[in-house]
């Protein structure tokens, strides 16, 4: 990296990104590109000679931006929020700038130590029990992964190895993983990856009656049935904030069932976990003290640009027992003396990014007050939107029946992007508020857009 070239070119890129954000509302929110559009625009072969950054930025504007779905647009209400922020971006820049690979403490002591400190900070902000903190002195601690999927794979591997040590290594076909019909599919995928037979993944139905949360009775009865069939319950995943509708599983009751049956209890708070920094939302975590592991994604709702997933463990040694390797090339005194954390043993890959730098910057630049304000403002917008359909005179059942066509028409307009879910057998349109640029005027305008398109569809049907 040549510092002079870096200054010149990074300024061009920073200006480009700033212009992108300034003009973001001019683009269709969901890309209107057709499959295969890009190969028609780009050459088949890579360039032989270096090209100037300005030319490349021009091509990005011309060819790449039309194929982007603008996740940072104020009119993006699809999937889940993926907050970008100045601090998150600058933290990512510092992470990339240093480009250190902190797989073991000695390979970059600050990377490891900052990560452990930031994980304790995050846990304190979310008021997690001290058993999950390094500073709690009970053996707990946390690590940053790239995604919840990786975090779940690692905790499942630890749970599997712990169980197989007890029941015998050829008993993997007996192990069973439990989740609800609202649990993110990442748990099913992780379960497959670590070798649990697909037929041993139990999807327990939820109902409107429990707010689409798992009930302890339902879990208990499925586990009892499994035990009667000589299966071994292994792992229960509870969710705080399901992806489809933000449902919350009751951690206290489920944690008690998990203890009763001796299964690993994981809490997936990928989506809504950030809200725990606000005292008024912390109650959704009641019972978290019964968890073996907890994961949440600052890259969703915590102003931290992709990628960043926090994973805390009550007993990291169980994870390390499962994932550690000790090649001669990496041996060093502090690791041999077990004086340090070597994060390579807490994750899948050897190499790792300096994500702690990014999260640290976010926490320091916004402070707890700023982060709470960010969550509260999004919740306020969501509450505002919630009132609009309810109090609108024009709302009727016909409109609901047209959900599929309505969603398609809104998304094709390019003026907003929403996605759907099937809940209790019904097709529902989700309105997930959370980009940092969304203001009340965007929410109101999108509601007017939805109403206008719905009326147009109804008129067309009746004419
Ligand atoms: N769990 C929940 C509740 C989620 O909402 C998501 C993503 O939407 C995930 C897990 C998957 O997260 P990741 O993409 O980091 O694996």
In words, what does this structure look like?
- The chain is α/β, with parallel strands linked by helices.
- The chain has two domains: 3-70, Up-down Bundle (dopa decarboxylase, N-terminal domain); 93-360, Type I PLP-dependent aspartate aminotransferase-like (Major domain) (Aspartate Aminotransferase, domain 2, 3-Layer(aba) Sandwich).
- It has helices at residues 3-22, 53-64, 86-98, 109-125, 148-167, 186-193, 216-228, 251-261, 298-301, 316-323, 333-336, 355-390, 397-401, 403-413, 440-462, and strands at residues 76-77, 141-145, 175-180, 201-204, 232-239, 264-268, 293-296, 309-313, 417-423, 426-430.
- The strands form two sheets. A seven-stranded mixed sheet has the order 2-8-7-6-5-3-4, with helices on both faces.
- α8 links the parallel β5 (232-239) and β6.
- The longest helix has 36 residues, at 355-390.
- The radius of gyration is 24 Å and the shape is globular.
- The site of pyridoxal-5'-phosphate (PLP) has 14 residues, from α5.
- Pyridoxal-5'-phosphate binds at residues 80, 147-149, 184, 186, 239, 242-243, 268, 270-271, 297, 309.
- Keywords: Aminotransferase, Transferase.
- Its EC number is 2.6.1.57.
- This is Aromatic-L-amino-acid decarboxylase protein.
- It is an enzyme of class 2 (transferase).
């Amino acid at each position: 990296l040549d510092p002079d070239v870096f200054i010149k070119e990074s300024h061009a890129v920073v200006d480009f990104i700033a212009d992108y954000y300034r003009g973001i509302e001019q683009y269709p929110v969901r890309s209107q590109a057709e499959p295969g559009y890009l190969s028609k625009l780009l050459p088949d072969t890579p360039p032989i000679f270096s090209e100037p950054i300005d030319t490349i930025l021009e091509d990005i504007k011309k060819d790449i931006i039309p194929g982007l779905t603008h996740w940072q647009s104020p009119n993006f209400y699809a999937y889940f929020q993926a907050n970008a922020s100045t601090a998150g971006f600058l933290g990512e820049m510092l992470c990339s700038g240093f480009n250190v690979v902190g797989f073991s403490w000695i390979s970059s002591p600050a990377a490891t130590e900052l990560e452990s400190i930031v994980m304790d900070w995050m846990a304190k902000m979310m008021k997690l029990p001290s058993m999950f903190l390094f500073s709690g002195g009970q053996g707990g601690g946390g690590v940053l992964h790239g995604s919840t999927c990786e975090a779940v794979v690692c905790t499942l591997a630890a749970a599997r190895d712990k169980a197989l040590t007890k029941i015998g290594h050829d008993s993997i076909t007996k192990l069973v993983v439990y989740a609800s019909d609202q649990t993110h599919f990442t748990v099913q995928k992780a379960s497959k990856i670590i070798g649990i037979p697909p037929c041993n993944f139990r999807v327990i139905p939820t109902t409107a009656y429990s707010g689409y949360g798992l009930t302890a009775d339902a879990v208990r009865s499925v586990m009892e049935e499994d035990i009667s069939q000589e299966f071994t319950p292994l792992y229960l995943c509870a969710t705080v904030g399901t992806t489809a509708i933000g449902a919350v599983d009751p951690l206290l009751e489920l944690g008690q069932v998990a203890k009763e049956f001796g299964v690993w209890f994981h809490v997936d708070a990928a989506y809504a976990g950030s809200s725990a920094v606000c005292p008024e939302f912390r109650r959704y975590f009641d019972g978290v003290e019964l968890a073996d592991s907890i994961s949440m994604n600052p890259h969703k709702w915590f102003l931290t640009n992709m990628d960043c997933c926090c994973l805390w463990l009550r007993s990291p040694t169980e994870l390390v027992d499962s994932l550690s390797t000790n090649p001669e090339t990496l041996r060093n005194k502090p690791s041999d003396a077990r004086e340090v954390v070597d994060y390579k043993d807490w994750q899948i890959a050897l190499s790792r990014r300096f994500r702690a730098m990014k999260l640290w910057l976010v926490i320091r630049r916004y402070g707890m007050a700023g982060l709470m304000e960010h969550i509260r403002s999004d919740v306020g917008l969501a509450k505002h939107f919630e009132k609009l359909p309810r109090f609108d005179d024009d709302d009727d059942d016909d409109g609901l029946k047209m959900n599929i066509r309505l969603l398609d028409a809104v998304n094709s307009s390019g003026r907003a992007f929403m996605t759907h879910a099937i809940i209790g057998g019904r097709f529902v349109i989700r309105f997930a508020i959370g980009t940092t640029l969304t203001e009340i005027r965007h929410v109101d305008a999108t509601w007017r857009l939805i109403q206008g398109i719905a009326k147009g569809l109804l008129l067309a049907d009746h004419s």
